[in-house]
Each structure stands twice: as C-alpha cells, then as structure tokens.
Design brief:
Blueprint (H helix, E strand, L loop, with lengths): L1 H23 L4 H79 L2 H20 L2 H5 L3 H10 L6 H17 L3 E9 L5 E9 L3 E4 L2 E6 L4 E4 L6 H12 L16 H8 L3 H7 L1 H37 L9 H11 L5 H19 L3 H33 L5 H61 L1
Parallel strand pairs: 1-5
Antiparallel strand pairs: 1-2, 2-3, 3-4, 4-5
Length: 458
C-alpha cells in the first residue's frame, strides 16, 4: 500500500509539471510533438526508477521483518531469564533467612563473649598505650589497635593475641629491663642512650628520671630532677650489674607523684619566697650559730685545761681559771685571809665573766628570730590583702606570693630560734658546771688558808 501511494504521488507531480510546461510554452504542433516525446521518455525513465525503488523497499521490508523476529526472540529469552533469576533470588532470600536464624541459634552466649572481648580490647588498648613496656616494645601498639578497632567477630587467634599481651604486661611489670632508646632533652635535642625500665613505674638513664609520653612515643628528661638522694638511688640502679639488689625510689603512681615532686620548690626557692625578711632571719640565725660554735670551742678548751689542772694541782698554770686562782693564792699567801679572798674573788669574777660571755647575745638572737618571722608574716599578709584589693579573689596565684612569704618567714624564724634556744640552754649548763667548779676551788683555797692561819695562831 505504501508503494502505491508513492506512485500516485509521483504521477500527480508529473501532471502538475506538464500542466506548468503547457502554460508556459506556445501550443504549436511542433511543440506538442516535442512535448509528447519528452513525456514518453520521462514516463519510461520514471517507470524504471519506480521499479528499482519498489525492489529496494521490498528488500528492506524483508530485512526489517527478519530483525523484528530476532528482537522478539531475544525479548522472549530475556523474559525467561528474568523469571528464572527472580525465582533464584526468592530462593536465596529464603535460604538466607533460614541461615541467619540458624546462626543466631548457634551463636547463643558467644555474642556476649564477643562483646566482652571488644570491651577488654578497648580497655587493654588504653592500658598498653600508657605502659612503659610498650615504650620498650612499640610493636604492641599495632596489635592491640587492630584488635580494638576491628568490627568483625574475633577469631580464636585474635583472642589468644589479646590474652598473650595481658600476660606479657603482667609478667614484665615485675622486671627491671635495660634497652636503648631515643631520649629528648628539655631543650628539645635528641640523643640515644641506655634506658632502665623499673616495671611499669619509672624509666631512668644515668641519674636522671624520664617521663614517657604515649601520644608521641617519646621519653623526655624531667625539666627538674628530684632531690639528690633520689638521683643517687637512680644512679646506683643504672650502674648496678645484673642480679645485684640496690635501693631505688619507685613512683607507684607511674609518674604522677614524681611530677608533683619535681614541681615542689627547692630549699633555695623557698628561702627566696621569704624575700628580704627571710634573708635577715637567716643572717641572724647564722650569726647566732657562729657565736654558739665559738663559745662551745672556748668552753670545751677551758674545761679540758681545768681537768688537766686538777690532775696537777701542785703545778698551777696560767692558761685556766683554776691555775690563775692558785697562782694568785701562792703569790699572796703571806697576806691575811681577807686580802687573799679579795684577790682570788677578783680573778674568779673575771674568769666567770669570760666564761659567760656571749650567752646573753645568743638569748637575745633566739628571741629576735621569731619576732622577725612575725614581721615577715605581717608583711606577707599586707601584700596579700593589697593583691586582693587590686585584683579580687578570682586568681589564687596572685595571693600565693604574699602567703608564701608569710609562711616561709614564720618557718625561718622558728628554725633560727629553736636551735639558738637549745644551744643557749646547753651552753648555760656548761657554764654552770664550770662556774661551780671554779667556785668550789676558790672556796677550797680559802678554806686551806683559814686552816693554816688557825694552826699558826694555835
């Protein structure tokens, strides 16, 4: 039908063209004959051209029909495949639901076990990361991180790894180990040296304590080391051969107490907190102790010489009070008793004054030292109240300086007064013994003179 409509369309076009030609050409006989010839020629060529087109159209229609048959066959095949896959999918869904139900039944209490394992892995990760043993064995971090961060059901080998890490931590926490590590100085420079690990408590190198930073996996020297005796114990442990027992100061808090210890001010820093009043108290105490030392030496020397004089009573020596009294007696024994008594008492009072010299100064210094401490206390509290007036009570550090001065000066005053008081009491007892001995010997000399006079008169 399509081909017939095409032929009709072309015939109409030919008629229209002929009509147009007839309208433009003159209608002469010759012209009509020529026109007839042209029409016949065109008709013949048109028929040939139409025949060729009809053949091509027929061939194309057959090919398209064949393609349509193949496409319909492919569609039918895909529909069958779709039905087959849908059936397989439904079957798989059913099997998967059955397997999941079976898995839940078989897991049972293992689900709780896996939850406990993950919790233990998280807790162990925190513990092992901060452990000094991890600083010696850094490969443990990768193992415990993989166990803690895994979202899959743990396997038996993984459980054994976690168990092994925990047993290793418990076993090595009671050992002292030596290994090489990179150490960072407070100034930021790094160096490699031998490090001694004491369980999970402390790490040292030489006589210096180290602080372990688990975030950066670094061992840093403490900017301020503890007291000298603590450093000495660290040096003894570092130099000790394997198997030898030495004393060592362990920080059971794994660095917390040591950090507080090194932050506490030293003796010089505490003295500096007392400021000028504190230095004045120390000066008073130092002067007082020098006087005490000097008087102790003098009294000890006098006591020794007097002891020697008592052993050689017939040979008086002028280097001690007893000898000088005996010399005065022998030189003036031809005089009467009263004259000798005055001569002996004059020497005795002079020697007693020398013996008691300095005691009153020590007593005054012992009384002045706590008063100076009280002065420092008042001065510090005045500074504290001035800071409160200017800045309020929001920041305690602003008041710490005045309070420290008040407390330190009080302590320094007491520390200076107590030994001076004790020294004064001790020296006073020594002076009393010497005075008693001098007085007894003077009375003995006078008594002998009185007996001698009585015998002469009789």
């Amino acid at each position: 039908m399509r081909i017939q409509w095409v032929n009709i369309y072309f015939k109409i076009c030919m008629i229209a063209s002929i009509t147009m030609i007839l309208s433009t050409l003159a209608l002469s006989d010759e012209g009509l004959l020529d026109l007839l010839k042209k029409v016949q020629e065109n008709k013949t060529s048109e028929a040939t051209w139409n025949s060729d087109r009809e053949r091509r159209f027929s061939a194309e229609a057959a090919a398209r029909k064949e393609m349509m048959i193949k496409a319909e066959a492919q569609v039918l095949e895909q529909e069958k495949l779709r039905d087959r896959l849908k059936s397989q999918f439904d079957k798989n869904e059913t099997e998967l639901a059955e397997l999941e139900s079976l898995l839940e039944k078989r897991v049972g209490d293992l689900g709780e076990l896996f939850g406990v394992f993950r919790q233990m892995a998280d807790d162990s990760q925190t513990m092992l990361y901060d452990s000094l043993i991890t600083f010696e064995k850094p490969e443990r971090k990768k193992i415990v991180s993989a166990l803690a961060e895994s979202d899959e059901i743990p396997t038996i080998p993984q459980m054994r790894e976690l168990w092994t890490l925990m047993i290793e931590e418990a076993a090595l926490s009671g050992q002292v180990s030596r290994f090489q590590a990179e150490i960072t100085e407070p100034g930021g420079e790094n160096y490699v040296a031998d490090v001694v690990r004491v369980g999970t408590f402390n790490i040292i190198t030489g006589n210096r304590y180290l602080n372990y930073l688990s975030e950066t996996d670094q061992a840093i020297e403490l900017p301020r080391q503890p007291a000298g005796y603590v450093q000495t114990s660290a040096s003894d442990l570092f130099l000790a051969p394997s198997g030898q027992q030495v004393g060592f100061y362990v920080d059971p808090s794994r660095g917390a107490l040591l950090g507080l210890l090194v932050q506490s001010p030293s003796l010089l820093e505490r003295i500096e907190q007392g400021k000028s009043v504190g230095y004045a108290i120390i000066g008073v105490g130092f002067v007082g102790l020098l006087i005490v030392l000097q008087r102790l030496i003098v009294l000890t020397r006098i006591r020794i010489r007097m002891s020697r004089q008592l052993k050689t009573i017939d040979v008086p020596k002028p280097d001690n009070p007893l000898g000088r009294m005996m010399i005065a007696y022998y030189e003036n024994r031809h005089l009467d008793l009263e004259a000798i008594k005055r001569r002996v008492e004059a020497i005795m009072f002079t020697d007693l004054a020398d013996v008691r010299k300095g005691l009153q100064v020590i007593k005054v210094l012992a009384a002045v030292a706590p008063l100076m401490g009280l002065l420092g206390t008042v001065t510090g509290m005045i500074g504290t109240f001035q800071a409160i007036t200017l800045f309020g009570t929001g920041d305690p550090k602003l008041m710490a300086g005045g309070i420290s001065q008040a407390l330190i000066t009080t302590v320094l005053g007491l520390c200076a007064a107590i030994p001076l008081l004790l020294s004064h009491s001790f020296l006073s007892s020594r002076v009393m013994l010497l005075s008693k001995l001098i007085g007894e010997q003077s009375l003995t000399i006078l008594a002998e003179k009185a007996e001698s006079d009585l015998k002469t008169r009789g």
